[in-house]
Amino acid sequence: MKKIVILLTALLLVIGLSYPAGTEQADAAAAPVYTEISTFIDGKLIISASKSVLVNGASYVPVKLLNQIPGLTIASAASGVTITGTTGSAKLNKDNSVLYKNSNYVNFKTLLKLGTIDGKYASSAVSLFMWSTEEGKTKSNNMLYAISKLPGTMGQAIGKKVYMYGHPGSHWVTDVQYIDETTQTLTMQNEAGTVWTLDLTNYEDNTMYTAETLQLLKDVINGHAVWARNSEISNSPFKNMEKASVKDFRSNPNSGNLEIIIRRANGQEVNMNIPPSANPAEYVTGLFYIENPRNAISDKVWAAIREERVIVGMKPEEVFLSWGTPDSINEDLAYVVYGNVYLYFINNKVYYIYKM
Q1: Total domain count, the chain
Q2: Residues near 198 by Cβ (< 8 Å), separated by ≥ 6?
Q3: Shared-domain flag, residues 186 and 237
Q4: Is 25 inside a domain boundary?
Q5: What is the DSSP secondary structure assignment for residue 98, as one 8-state letter?
Q6: Among 42, 266, 269, 349, which residue has the least CB neighbours within 10 Å?
Q7: What backbone phi and psi angles, to 5 degrees, belong to 290?
Q8: Domain boundaries, position 306
């Protein structure tokens, strides 16, 4: 959820990953920013390919969804689209509507003036709540109150398509209930339409991730070259510092776990499970270098690094590439310890290797 997205953004700043620069990037910077948000009508999540959007901070609703609101009528003619409510009408124009993905969207404030609905945008859930009846208002406000009681940024999962460790497939978070400080539940709906309840009392932090997070990982990191850090990879199938590439991120179809798929130069694909307690961006940079680590390293030393050996004459950073972080460092006597091996340095190079 948001925590993962923020950490991913920080990663991009550190490793220099970004979308291609150029004219398209400059044009995009000047264009309106569209953010898709969830839509609730009378407390019910609208699951649709057409989602409401935030455009530079203002909420807009797809005209396609308005036929699900009792009391609103939509009339299309050659002269344009007119929306009519209980107290007035509004014709779409450049001031009260936008075109997004080839569909008309009407400003939420314009809808409020028509008298049929009321509602509000909830930033804590990145969702738009609208109601047309007293019952719908009560249900919506109960949901909004329950969202305010959710821990951390959990509210941003409400109304979203999510994946969960231990639960295959995707799920929609359709509702939230707050009973007391120790009893909070989410109503989930899976791909088959089956509704089930997630008890947050037993929920483990960061075991849920949104479809948006998964897509962002794909968009930014897929196809990027990586170099294996065998000192950090348990039972590594790679040769140390082997160059590979990130093929994909996916939700494992059998477990729901988040995985990264690494493609080796020979075409072999290695699926690696990302622990639920880790954030995926840090996981990638913890196990792989994102930039070529070989920098003015001699062929002899590089061959030793690839074979995970340490030889006399290596610099500390070259030892690190081969064996990773030492178990201990004695700066006074200029040696480091890896298990039962002591490496002594003179003039910042390995001078003597002693194995106990």
Answers
A1: 3
A2: 164, 185, 186, 187, 188
A3: no
A4: no
A5: E
A6: 266
A7: -90, -20
A8: 299-355
